[in-house]
Amino acid sequence: MVNRKIVCLGGGIGTANLVRGIKKYFNDITVVVSMADDGGSAGRLRRFYKTFPPGDLINCIMALSSAEPIMLELLKYRFAGNRYGSDVSLPGQKLGNLILVALAQIKEDFGRGLLEMQRIFKVKGNIYPSTAVPISIWAKTSTGHTVTREENIDLGKFKGQIIKLFLRPKNPSVSREVIDSIENADIIIAGPGDLYTTVLPVLMVPSILEALKKTSAKKIFVVNVANKPFETPKYTIEDFAQAIKKHCQSVIFDTFFLNNNFKPAIPSKYKTQYKYVPIPDTNKKYPFRVVHGDLISEDFSLYHDSKKLAKTIVENL
Asked: What whole-number distance in Å separates Cα of residue 258 and Cα of residue 223?
């Protein structure tokens, strides 16, 4: 085990994959999860119960849990039906999300419910909402249009390309635990994950950004294996860095990790939309270190392989 405090920023499948791999190397892991999600079944629960979006928190709980396999099967079980159905219907809901919302109501506080959830499912680490209130995001596009809500950005329901992302509220409150974990971290990792709908909604929170700039931790950004249509079309590593600088007034991260194995074919369902993020010009100098290696999942080539990514990170600390 590496005896260092590590903090992961983001949420969703990318962050869950990351922590699933690094938990074999680190015994002090904190995950800070975006509270901007308002789509799918988690968004339905957020709206109907006026609560925090539970989906990405559950993904991270599953990744860090040492509970019996059947307990994890329960967490990820999704009732048959449309994830984007009515806010008041059960079909399409995931049981883990429902349990977390129920615990929040039993404990009369979402934070206490989340702590109880982590205790019940034997989570080895700490998982915190990025903000003490649910937040929303909206963006301006290259065509002069405005697109509101995380779900609409995520599904590409807008014209042009995203130029600038905004938070609502602009300066949401953040728990002391989140700030302390960032300021006292030895290593901070952001990504992989959707840049505008998952990663930046954490980095842009003013008090989190201030803590990131203050901490002496090593800061790592994991670039996605493939570019998502609409959100990061044709992005290079420079585009990711520039987007971070534009929204955070600094590139922040001293090391960027990038996959360089393009042999696995992109699944036929996605190959007309998704493209691999290209390897940067080796002759060009960047204001950050670039580490590239075989990080791709052979099972599903749009994702990182948890074991490969964790091993590469540890080898390059």
From this structure: 5
Q: Which amino acid is at 249?
A: Q
Q: Between helices 55-64 and 110-120, what is the axis angle to 10°? A: 30
Residue 248's SS3 state is helix
The mean per-residue pLDDT over the stretch 71-99 comes to 95
**Alpha helix stretches (DSSP H) within 77-161:** 95-106, 110-120, 150-154
Q: Tens digits of per-residue pLDDT, 105-120?
A: 999 999 999 999 999 9
Q: Are 113 and 191 in contact (CB under 8 A)?
A: no
Quick check: 234 pLDDT over 90?
A: yes
Report all structural domains of the chain as residue ranges with CATH numbers, in order of start.
6-35+130-315 (3.40.50.10680)
Q: What is the pLDDT of residues 145-183, one digit of tens each?
A: 999 999 999 999 999 999 999 999 999 999 999 999 999
Q: Cα(296)–Cα(178) distance, rounded to whole angstroms?
A: 30
What span, in angstroms and rounded, lies between the C-alpha atoms of 218 and 298? 29
**Total-model pTM:** 0.97
Q: Which residues partner with 189 through β-bridges?
A: 8, 220
